[in-house]
Write a structure and sequence with these properties.
alpha/beta; TIM Barrel; RibuloseP-bd_barrel; EC 4.1.1.23; binds cytidine-5'-monophosphate; OMPdeCOase_dom; 232 residues; Orotidine 5'-phosphate decarboxylase
């Protein structure tokens, strides 16, 4: 069973520290996204890795291939275990990003966002992408695999289909996780932890369900237990 990354969607190191203190003695795997990275920068990411947190650096790089390569060369120096690009940047960009990452890190894994979990079929139509969601996600995942990437970020709902077309060991990192009966917020394609497990997700990203919980530590323990499959 892979990681349960807690999405540290906070604006400052102080807020993160306050939150992580509530989870002590756990040292959870965490996801640092754009908000926190742009607020606190690479030094803070390095601090988290040095404190022993496994870090997924979720910056969703999407640019011309050479810029993606140079960006990943920089991010490879931060000691994170996972980072990502948008598959919509194309296969050449994904190859370039991977090459850049390998210039500075032999171990950081690179995955691609297929479609955001806030995107639904109506939004694809809006974006003038005239295909069914599962076809789009499958195509993007296959391109990521061909580019040599380690996996994709996708909805848990996409995972059963993707498992039939992607190689063994390909990673399916799934956000949009909600405990049964709670708010979807802005997410559209959501699943519970148990469903994600059954569908074949390899890693989870959970943000608000834990960070906004009345008792974050208790919620983390409940969801981690469900994820690891230990009967309560
Ligand atoms: O609060 P919630 O659990 O919805 O947070 C999900 C996190 O996963 C957010 O940080 C969001 O940026 C991220 N994410 C996502 N969908 C993707 C990729 C990343 O929701 N496809």
């Amino acid at each position: 069973m892979g990681q349960l990354y807690i999405a540290l969607d906070f604006q400052s190191a102080a807020e993160v520290e306050q939150f992580l203190n509530q989870l002590a003695p756990y040292r959870p795997a965490v996801k640092v996204g754009m908000e926190l990275y742009y607020a606190e920068g690479p030094a803070f990411v390095r601090r988290l890795t040095e404190q022993g947190h496994a870090v997924f650096l979720d910056l969703k790089v999407h640019d011309i291939p050479e810029t993606a390569r140079r960006t990943m060369r920089v991010l490879g120096q931060l000691g994170v275990e996972l980072t990502n690009v948008h598959a919509a940047g194309g296969e050449a960009m994904m190859r370039a990003a991977l090459a850049g990452l390998r210039e500075t890190s032999p171990t950081t894994r690179l995955i691609a966002v297929t479609q955001l979990t806030s995107t639904d079929q109506a939004m694809l139509t809006d974006l003038m992408i005239p295909h069914a969601m599962d076809q789009v996600v499958t195509h993007y995942a296959q391109q990521a695999e061909q580019a040599g990437l380690d996996g994709v970020v996708c909805s848990a709902l996409d995972t059963p289909t993707l498992k039939t077309v992607c190689r063994t060991g390909f990673q399916f990192v799934t956000p949009g996780i909600r405990p049964a009966g709670t708010e979807a917020d802005d997410q559209k394609r959501i699943a519970t932890v148990m469903d994600a497990r059954q569908y074949g997700a390899t890693d989870l990203v959970i943000g608000r369900a834990i960070t906004q919980a009345a008792d974050p530590k208790q919620m983390y323990e409940i969801l981690l237990t469900q994820w690891k499959g230990i009967k309560q």
